[in-house]
Amino acid sequence: MTIQYEPMSPGAWKDPYPIYQELREKAPLHRGPESGIYCLSRHEDVAFALRNAQIFSSRGMQEVLFDRGGMRPGLRDLPALARFFIRARVNPLRRNAQGGGLIGTDPPEHDALRSVVNRGFTPRRVAAWEPRMREIAAAHVGALEADEAFDVVRDLAIPLPVTVIAEMLGVQGERMRDFKRWSDAIVSAATGTKRDAGLAGMLDPMGEMRQYMASIIPERRRNPKDDLISVLVDPRHEDTLDEDQVFGFIVLLLVAGNETTTNLIGNATVTLLDHPAELEHVQADPALVPQMVEEVLRYDTPVHLLFRSTTQEVELSGGKLPAGAQVAVILASANRDPRVFDDPDRFDVTRTSNTHIAFGFGVHFCLGASLARLEAKVAMEALVPHLPKRRRSSEELDYIDSFLVRGPRSLELIVSA
User: Which of 31, 331, 368, 385 could serve as 257's disulfide partner, Cβ 3.0–4.6 Å?
Assistant: First the structure.
């Protein structure tokens, strides 16, 4: 029987793990029957692809997310394109030399770009945010202490990373809602069921964001402050980013830094509530929280897949990939591979051998991994003491409309009877 799996189809989004198991065992080098995209599902192959950027080019992210289907500009998109160019003050005839930005370029261009943005994510800079994170988390769990209705996503998992990212960038506090709205719209338009609806869903929020940032970036270049944008454009540094590069990085930060952390916190809460014995372990020993976060990253990975394109023919465990192939590298499947993890479908907060690849691997290892881990740790330390007295208001979960990222859209908790 042929496996009818398509990496961008919503058919398996609610519970993709059974189909991932089938892919690993029966079709480790599966080709989507409609898209033609090859799918890697075993840990060995996924790690090999991520480790070998010279064979598996990150141009695949640009090719699959933006150059296929509804993401190709057409006549229906002319009004949205015009609005974007006007708002963003972008010359449509000028080509961005950086192309896919940090996530869509390969070495050496990627390395040069990453060396600049790394300055904003040093261990010292990330650690310095912990006291502020704890303030934000404490303020948002107040409703739980008062035994009021509480939506984990709306009341904690969204505001914590959005506030931190906005403050890191040095933007105005009143624009935080806009940042979340822009982020949601971009994720939905690029990776959701409305991909074929045209470019307006993506270009309109990107145009608004670019219009806002266009006034901040030149000011930070003239008068640098102690914020992330200044770190990227301060002329006192030998290497800086231009406006296009800064904007591209901010879009990436919103999607990769904001959505990923929100989903990590949401997935952690769902998983703990579904495994009361493991919740009891963590409540009894709060020192297990960091280990629990790592297990959630493995067990219900926030970013399910990445895309690559092959630069040459390559042999993998499941067969041979031709040059020029578009490839879905399924992180979430690799993290449940029994060849690497004992009893992989079991959630175990005491698991010690946990070589998950939820943050990728190799040169594209997630720049904000340490920030996401710290935010999740702080959020769950604030939340776990309240969970034993709470239950979900509904057994049904509404997941984000995306093939790329996975997490609950909402998660209301009520006092257990």
Answer: 368
